[in-house]
Amino acid sequence: MSEHARPKATDDSETETSETDTETEAEATDAEPVSTGAQSAIAALEQAGAETLFGVQGGAIMPIYDALYDSELTHVTMAHEQGAAHAADAYGVVRGDPGVCLATSGPGATNLVTGIADANMDSDAMLALTGQVPTEFVGSDAFQETDTTGVTAPITKHNYFAGDADTVGDTVGEAFALAGAGRPGPTLVDLPKDVTLDDTDTQPGPAETPSTYSFREEADEEEVADAARAIERAEKPLLLFGGGVVKAEATEEARRFATEFGIPVATTMPAIGTMPEDHDLCLSWAGMHGTGYANMAITHTDCLVAVGTRFDDRLTGGVDTFAPEAEVVHVDIDPAEISKNVHADYPVVGDAASALEQLEAEMDAAPDAREWREQCRTWKEEYPLAYVTPDDEPLKPQFVVEAFDEATDDDTIVTTGVGQHQMWAAQFWTYTNPRTWVSSHGLGTMGYGLPAAIGARLAAEDDQQVVCFDGDGSLLMTMQELSVAVRENLDITVAVLNNKYIGMVRQWQDAFFEGRQMAADYGWCPEFDKLAEAFGAKGLRVDDYDEVADAIDEALGYDGPAVIDFHVDPAENVYPMVPSGGANGKFALTEDQL
Amino acid sequence: MSGNDAEQTDDSASESSVEIPAAGMPGPEPDERPHPEGRRNSQGIRIDPEAEAEPRYRTAVVSALVEHEPGVLSRVSGLFSRRQFNIESLTVGPTTVEGHARITLVVEETDPGIDQVKKQLAKLKPVIQVGELDDDAVQAELVVLKVRGDEPDKVHAITQMYEGQTLDAGPRTITVQITGDQGKIDDAVDAFRQFGIIEIARTGQTALARGDTPTTPGEEPGYAESNDD
User: Fold this and answer.
1) Residue B23 CB neighbour total at 10 angstroms
2) Selected residues 41-70 of chain B with any CB under 8 Å from a CB in chain A
3) Which range, of A1-10, A471-480, B150-159, averages the lowest pLDDT?
4) Partner-chain contact B124 A576, CB within 8 Å
5) CATH topology of A221-382 equal to that of A397-575?
6) pTM of the model
7) For chain A, what are the domain ranges?
8) Is the pLDDT of residue A154 over 90?
9) Residue B186 and residue A103: Cα distance in Å, rounded?
10) In this structure, which topology does domain A2-197 adopt according to CATH?
11) Rounded mean pLDDT, A173-192
12) B24: left (phi > 0), else alpha (psi -120 to 50), else beta?
């Protein structure tokens, strides 16, 4: 029945629907027969391979939850819908297929918005299901009514208003498939309560992407050949791995390409871990707070081979000074990213894994880049990431990150909120695996870390450790989700790098607003260790270097959620820093250099 | 305690050779580092360091074949506003294929901008095909003009000059319609100004490719599908 089960048939939907109905009855043997729209929606999720859902109950979504009562799917009740969206997002990042979140209409749906926007900016596959007021009340400003498809249209890959119980299952399946297909992204299905309550015996077909959606898997041979020639003749080639390498499961191909042809690698933040950061060719991540050596390499490369990146401004700084000498090879599955921000001299449209394999096969020789590799090594020596620990200054946050890295396994998953702590967690932890760095990049959502740790925990292998680095300001935005971690007894460790500041804003105020600190200085913070205990988690507090290792061991050894409140130096800043719009190679190492 | 080694601990040479200043990060200051001459313009295109290329805007007519479903127009118009594309006009109407509609957009953008318009439009799920029309495409627009009725003969003469039609004529106002390409409409509007234009409504341009060229690439002739049904 597969090819007929298209929820949004284009030009002859009536005939298709009737065929689906009859064939379903004949073939629906292995699945539980559905009797309502809600059951059909849940059956579609089961068929699509979803396992864990994150959500919050509410009036208009109740029929869906009622259908979950009989379902094998695991549902995690979150404290707030934003937490549900971030948890689903992180779950998807770690697992590699779409995470699913649920919310009711009105405030439930609008609370999801930040998490959906976050997934959209980072091209994370996610499906949001929202309840809606019954169809007859739509447009009447009914209780808890919001135009959810209207609100979320700009921040979803696509969204659907499910208007019919007979097709709601197929719509949910399509939305799930679309979220993960091609360039991933969030999709949403708005489910009016009458539709989910309505009787239907239509078993959803297999999840399929819509007929109008297409993407290129294999790259064009000519594009590949042109790009290969450009790489071969380069003297200073540089690979730039982006999040697309993770999404396309192209890590193996990407690493092989780098090592086979001896090409140094910088990554973007979402691609942290695609190249092991302890590898000789790896320059770690580039951009505003990236390593000096990665930014020097970008500045001087004569051939930038960018794979699966959208050239975000936090990576490029000012476009006029970005890779100013480089011919750009740009591999991306989304043709709209080609030459959007940085002109691509050699566009290669295709899936990163396929395109890299094709490129590898097409290359006749490795570029002669011995001197360039030596130069990159010199830059590593010249601009190491470093910090100092004077006796008269408080505990340095970077030290905490390094201590955690040492105490944990290589495959440990790190989640973060957004701010200074996020940058330190990215800089001072040596990542060696993809899908172990889970953060909010494009949207920069404070509060992402804790709900993401919950999602990551449920997606990770049982023996994989999950550590959340958070700031005091960031954690205070979503700390209620600790109740979920306690209730579900999730083994996660939250490291609060507490400086009693919205630290990144304070750093900018000092650098760019003449030190006029406004609304960034908390001056006071709750005692996170005691708060953790009040939630029923393990709470620890650390003020000095000599307490760090023991506290980490105790927290990691605790079976359940543990929170360590590290009181760190409030004056510490994140460097290197490329000022907004600046040149990558002119990163500042101190405030004076900004 | 010190974290004075690079993330790449393999490289043992770095540990001894680098001196960590009080601020933490070692290395030459920004202006002491080598920096290449090259530059890019605001569109990320590499340019001669001496040259400052001005982006050149042009008018393009873009046709999008879409699924005629609720919300498609708001998705298209939302895309234009959120990506700051300059749009001059937008028309929409059904095609001969059931469930399909054609949206015709007139945009004023640079070449990379027009490229972005087409690619971003193509990404919208209800959009089936997108094409940019050549200069020789057949284009038409309709304007309805309401002018003062003081000089009916003159109004009639000008309407005839532009092969228009009188839709309504009364003692105080006369309403006419003119169709044609944008230049003709602009001229006609100018010509009617002498009577005092009271109200005006323009549809915006709609267009098809000339001859048997499909308006959007790969577009099937509509009659073929409707015959099948």
Assistant:
1) 17
2) 41-46, 67, 69-70
3) A1-10
4) no
5) yes
6) 0.92
7) 2-197, 221-382, 397-575
8) yes
9) 52
10) Rossmann fold (3.40.50)
11) 98
12) left
